[in-house]
Every structure is written in C-alpha cells, then in structure tokens.
Fold this protein.
Amino acid sequence: MLISILLRLGMNPLENSIYFTSLFDFLNLLHFISSSISFLSLLLFFGLLGYEIKIRQSEDRIINLFKSIIQTFSLRLFLIQREHSETVSTSEQGNVKRYNLINRQFNKAIQKVVVDIREESTTLIIPVPKSQQAIRILKDLETIISEEISSRNPDYYFSRPERKGMDFYFIGTRRK
C-alpha cells in the first residue's frame, strides 16, 4: 500500500507533461499492479482471520484467539537476545562494530514463535535455529522458557520440550 501511495504521489507532476507520457504510463501500470496486490493481500488477510474466528467460535472461545496473539508477541519480545554487536578497537580503524551472527540467527528463529491457546491445551512452537550455537542458546533458555510459559498460563501443566522436525513444542494440558 505504501508503494501505491508513493507511486501515486510521484505520478502527479508527470500527468500533464507531454515529454514523460511513456514514463507516466509505466508508473500508472506499476500503481495498478501494486494496488491490486495490496487489495488481494488485505482480502486474503481478512478471509483467513474470518475463517480462524469461525473455527474458534465453533470449537473453542474467541477470547483464546486474542490471548494467543498477545502471548505470541509478548513471548517474542521476552526471548529476543538484545546484544547485537560488540565494539572492537583496532589501531588502524579505531572502534569497529562487529555484529553477533549467532544472536541474529537466534532472533530470526524467535520471530517465528507461536503460542496457541485452546480451551483444553496450550502449545508453544519454537522453530529450531539454523546454527548449532543458536540452538545452544535455545537449549540454555529451555528452563526459563518453561517457567515463563507456565507463569503466563497457570491453568496448564507443561511438558518438557519435544523436538518434532525443525520445531520445539512445549505442550500444556489444562489442570483439572
């Protein structure tokens, strides 16, 4: 949508110019394509959201959908490793920042964490990072993650994390 708006703003000065008609036609085509993609993306988003609400309404409670969304975003913020770089002093270049690629890979995996809260179960899905050092960070945080998800959902018992394929699963069942 931003591209569509910027294209429309950029096209306004070219609209009345006789020298830039081919450029105007090209930008007009790009504006139409970007507007169409934006509209289809919004339509797909609202369609999937409506489908999920319909499923939650028939099988579960809609409030659990909102709890899932809130906990997903708050857990992502909690798990992010904030040490992005270290400063190294060299005699030739002065202070140089080097970015920690391990934390970057870990944070990339953490951005895909999903919490799914249902009436009878809660599932936390954490994608496995690509490198062994990032996996080691995840393994070191395993007990902290267990405590955090348990404290956020006190009505559920959580199992030890299970690895299925390229994901870690923390599965919680409702206390009776």
